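# nightly structure sweep
# worker-07 picked up a monomer target from the shared queue
# config: single-sequence mode, recycle default, output format = structure tokens
# input follows
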Amino acid sequence: MDVQVSPHASGAFVTIDRDQRDALWYALRLELSALADVPLVLGLAEASVPADVQRRREVIAWLLDDLGWRRDDARETFAITLPRHELEAWLRRQREGAADLVAEAREGLRHPEDYRLSPRESLEQARQGLQDEIDHELGLMRACDALLCASP
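# output follows
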């Protein structure tokens, strides 16, 4: 995973490759989906959304502007223009969440019967689903680590 850090007129930016982008993109889409439900869950009007939730949405939108909103963006490299301190905070949250999910999924591999999505799902299908989740989250952790290590 190659990460390039270069100065830019709009502030520091980082250039990442497609694999890193894809790992971050999926995390962004999941977080955006979760944050979209905040007003509904809390019974709030959109204008009453807490400022920290609104700022997290803005960070996600900025990153999706940089990385592309479509899953099939054709670019091979992506420049991240989000201010460094906000990028690092987002990356740390994502890495921590991914590490928690990996630990939970690894525990699930010991007891796959508790992780079947339906009674008709076989234990092998449950194990494969858990392994796929581990692989996905480890990819996200690698992308986060590469970017955090590249920060001066």
